[in-house]
Amino acid sequence: MAPPQSTPEALLQRLEWTVLRRLDGLLQGDYRTLLRGGGVDLADLREYQHHDDVRHIDWNVTARMQQPYVRQFHEDRDLTAWFLLDLSGSVDFGSGDVTKLGVSAGFVAALARVITRHGNRVGALLYGSQVDTVLPPGASRVHVLQLLQRMRAPRPAVRGGPAGGTSLYDLLATADGIMRRRSLVFVVSDFISAPGWEEALGRLAQRHDVVAVRLWDPLEMALPAESDLGLVTIEDAETGEQLLIDGTDPAFRARYAALAEQAEAQLTASFARAGVDMLELATDDDLFAALLRFADLRRKRVFGSRAPLALGRLADHLSIQEAPA
Q1: For a designed S-S bond to 189, which of 86, 151, 292, 322 qualifies (C-beta 3.0 to 4.6 A apart)?
Q2: Angle formed by the axes of helices 100-117 and 141-152, to 10°?
Q3: For 215, what's the count of Cα atoms within 13 Å in the CB-facing half-sphere?
Q4: Dihedral of CA 138/144/147/149: which sign?
Q5: Would you say residue 2 lies in a domain?
Q6: How many domains, in total, are found in the chain?
Q7: Mean pLDDT, rounded, of the chain
Q8: What does the pLDDT look like over 34-90, one tens digit per residue?
Q9: Is the alpha carbon torsion for 19, 24, 26, 32 positive or negative?
Q10: Domain residue limits at 169
């Protein structure tokens, strides 16, 4: 990942040299599979899988085969992808050199450039304490740079919503009203939010192909070694509330780990109920490996266990390469 202080141009240029050039030859044949759109030309038939759109069930084939089959379509040439970006205070956190916001910027830059380099468009909704920016879809390198620049801009002050907190419901509901045509949607967030967003995510997934990109930091899952802690003051990045904790207290450490595990299970269950794919990005992640996981996620979504040979080669190639320093 690029350091947070990199300019949008420097970040994008670095990714183009270290990631995108190495993916170009590999993605040329697999791009339509990875980012399959909602076109009208039939591409294939396959067995129904959990969370498939029931509108795509081919009832004639289903009756003959005695089990559900769904139709798949060739991608529309003007596929549109949307990034719904949570830029709230909790995202600007990282226990190491990279914050969740830095991870988000790297992922968005790489994937947006992959999409636009193949002639398709990307748009974005940006949320700080409210939806403060809507960037209409565009298909140029300059457009991607504009998106990255807006991600770095200071967010406007709070107007409404939960006091000092995040409401992902507002972001998802706003997007649902803006995106009229079926699109590929990336919800990039740490999903630390006031409750109520799960239903809005499910409604969005009924009309669009949604991927939840969950940002997280290792410190959010487990405290450092006891020898590295004592009495520590922690502060909520969004509300400013402070709490003094004893990081050496075994009971507190056990409660912390149990709450983190419970929150993780609830989040996974929420994504499953909404019918969306989930991609996890940690602050110590390697971007190349993250794109590999995304390729594998899409391959499983489209083909299940029946992955095409070209995509298998893509996964094999990415898994044996080391990202340059």
Answers
A1: 86
A2: 160
A3: 30
A4: negative
A5: no
A6: 1
A7: 79
A8: 555 455 455 667 788 766 667 778 888 888 888 888 877 655 456 899 999 999 999
A9: positive
A10: 8-39+74-218+268-320
